[in-house]
Amino acid sequence: MDNLFWFMYDVSHPRNDAIIQSGTMEFKILGDFMDKLSLAFEFRHACKRFDESKKINHADFETILEAGRLSPSSFGLEPWHFVVVDNADIKAELRAACYDQEQVTSCSHFVILLYRKANNFTLQSPYLRQAVARTVPDQNDETAIDIASQDFLNYITHGLGEGLSTNHWSEMQGYIPAANMMTTAAYHGIDSCALGGFQYPKVLSILEKHIPSFSSEVFGVGLCLAFGYRIDEQPPHIRWSLQDVTTYLS
Ligand SMILES: Cc1cc2nc3c(=O)[nH]c(=O)nc-3n(C[C@H](O)[C@H](O)[C@H](O)COP(=O)(O)O)c2cc1C
After folding, report:
1. Fewest CB within a 10 Å sphere: which of 28, 84, 173, 191?
2. Dihedral sign, Cα of residue 22, residue 230, residue 189, residue 78
3. Residue-range domains of the chain with CATH
């Protein structure tokens, strides 16, 4: 496909055919010319400024969260939690903690993606035992839970890449729901921006202030995501070619 073309959803009919625009020309294309999922990948960009007058409706936002919830994770341990902020005052506090990035206050919904810290993953930790219990035939069989938990702990002890810790392992898991949420948003004509640019201690103190049960002993902050509707045109994607980033061993 010619690079000069750019793609967009007809946001008023996000489930219908796509529109391709090139200069003053506009082509309507049928869904099976380029499937809707591929179009979503084209549509998604790191949105720097959202239209503050547009809010994501509850059902659409739950669809985005569901994509996060259903994401795969190592050993199925789902070591994440999603904090959703749609309150303007709290978003303003968060903006100050995110190097004053405009996305934080102009977005409709801001998600703080938490990861579970290493102390959730010891043989006796309630979180690990409850998560593992879901996978054994008898949820009261403590021996089976011990064995399955130990299987995971052996992986953590011997299977992680060089220099990686349990906290790294846990934080990495969160990038999978993050990506799935952004793609799902794009599929529904909703924009997003991942934000790794935040001051960790400031975000923690905002969480502690607004969520009395929050404990930085239990959770760390992995990544933030802003969702809303774009106000500016999307710049072209800058990417290496498929050839540059791929090696086949056939
Ligand atoms: C982990 C991660 C952290 C990011 N942090 C920020 C950020 O703090 N602020 C921002 O504007 N964009 C941020 N981005 C967006 C990237 O800059 C953007 O995805 C990249 O430049 C490619 O542009 P595109 O997504 O529009 O194709 C982040 C992306 C990722 C994956």
Report:
1. 28
2. positive
3. 1-43 (no CATH), 46-228 (3.40.109.10)
